[in-house]
Specification:
By secondary structure, the chain is an alpha/beta fold. About 10% of the residues have low confidence. A hairpin with a 2-residue loop joins strand 8 and strand 9. Strands 1, 2, 3, 4, 5, 6 and 7 form a 7-stranded mixed beta sheet that branches.
Length: about 375
């Protein structure tokens, strides 16, 4: 890769991807520097004008700076700014504008308003309104509106999992949050988090072939084998102070109930509701949630069950045709895998489960996943 092409690739990166690249090539304290400064420092190091600096406390391996192709291929897992902008513009069929114009005043609550239990991952619209989808509802999608006072009082961020109660509006698909009882599975307390973590290359091993802060593909025989695998690994990793999230893609209610019975699982983000755009939102929920736990100093292990279903869901969302995945499908996969990271105090690790009998017909997808996980 020549220098001009390399510079063009850098220009496409968002600030977080740029910081990751800067850290890889040896820029000191990249989180304290602005975008233009990072671009210049990276370019100078790649041109040999500046000596790279590495923080050896973290055991960072020195990159081969002459191999730009390898460097950029490692970075691709973190995504591409242009593609990310396209994904943000995907039209979601639920009309948020109408939803958030409807006000439910607590002082004027009629007697027939129902107080329901709710559980959901916090989202934020482009206009700054907060809401969650009620995970306790299997057949009915219920939006839970969250007033800004709850966000401020509890220091909440997008991706936090909240549990509590809400007032359900009659004949509507929305409710208004009444009370928060738990945040991220723990009794309500003011959130403490660190959004400016210094991401490092992890060294601490969970097991011989799996590092905290990394991702791996695990081939299992079938659905029952994958459930047993998750059950076994949660027992092992729970002893290492880890929390667990399962992204259950096209799973049945029966499968979800089996996962519910695994004691150590923190959260199951399921796509039981068969609506493609809704499914895409739940994928983003998972990304936001595991990042939230990371910022709250948790070691997170995320299981994708099963990974091939993720491709199928995204193919519908982005209208892939002729058995060729849309570029946004590939980008979303990279975005999900790119969640894997580690700091001095917390980490996110991804385990992508793939069934053995799927490899024959979906060998390209399997090989792509292995390549991304190893990069």
């Amino acid at each position: 890769m020549d220098k001009n092409l390399f510079d063009k690739q850098m220009e496409k990166l968002g600030i977080y991807e740029l910081r990751s690249l800067a850290r890889s090539v040896g820029v000191k304290s990249p989180t304290t520097k602005k975008r233009e400064e990072l671009l210049k420092l990276i370019s100078d190091i790649m041109a040999g004008k500046t000596t790279p600096l590495y923080n050896n406390r973290f055991g960072r391996p020195v990159k081969n700076l002459s191999n730009q192709d390898e460097l950029m291929s490692n970075l691709l897992i973190f995504g591409d700014k242009e593609l990310e902008d396209k994904i943000k513009k995907v039209e979601i069929k639920d009309h948020y504008d109408l939803l958030f114009k409807q006000e439910l005043s607590k002082e004027d609550e009629p007697l027939n308003y129902n107080l329901i239990e709710v559980k959901g991952i916090i989202r934020k619209t482009e206009k700054g309104s907060y809401y969650a989808l009620n995970c306790l509802k299997i057949s009915v999608k219920t939006y839970v509106l969250i007033e800004e006072k709850f966000i401020n009082e509890n220091n909440l961020i997008e991706g936090d999992l909240i549990e509590g109660t809400a007032y359900l509006s009659p004949n509507k698909n929305y409710a208004k949050l009444n009370l928060i009882q738990k945040i991220n599975g723990e009794d309500k307390q003011k959130n403490v988090y660190d959004l400016e973590k210094e991401v490092i290359i992890p060294q601490k091993s969970l097991e011989n072939n799996f590092l905290q802060g990394r991702c791996k593909v695990e081939v299992v025989k079938d659905l029952d084998a994958s459930i047993n695998y998750i059950k076994e690994k949660t027992k092992v990793y729970s002893l290492k102070n880890c929390v667990f999230v399962v992204l259950g893609l096209e799973i049945s209610i029966e499968t979800k109930l089996k996962l519910d019975q695994i004691e150590n699982i923190t959260e199951i983000v399921s796509l039981i509701e068969d609506k493609s755009y809704f499914s895409y939102e739940k994928i983003l929920d998972t990304i936001n949630h595991v990042n939230s736990l990371f910022y709250h100093n948790k070691n997170v292990v995320m299981f994708a069950l099963d990974t091939l279903s993720l491709y199928r869901v995204l193919d519908v969302v982005f209208k892939s045709s002729n058995n060729i995945h849309d570029e946004r499908v590939k980008y979303t996969i990279r975005k999900l895998l790119g969640c894997a990271k580690a700091s001095q105090s917390s980490s996110i690790s991804n385990i992508m489960l793939f069934y053995d009998y799927q490899k024959t017909n979906y060998l390209n997808e399997y090989n792509d996943l292995v390549t991304l996980c190893n990069s």
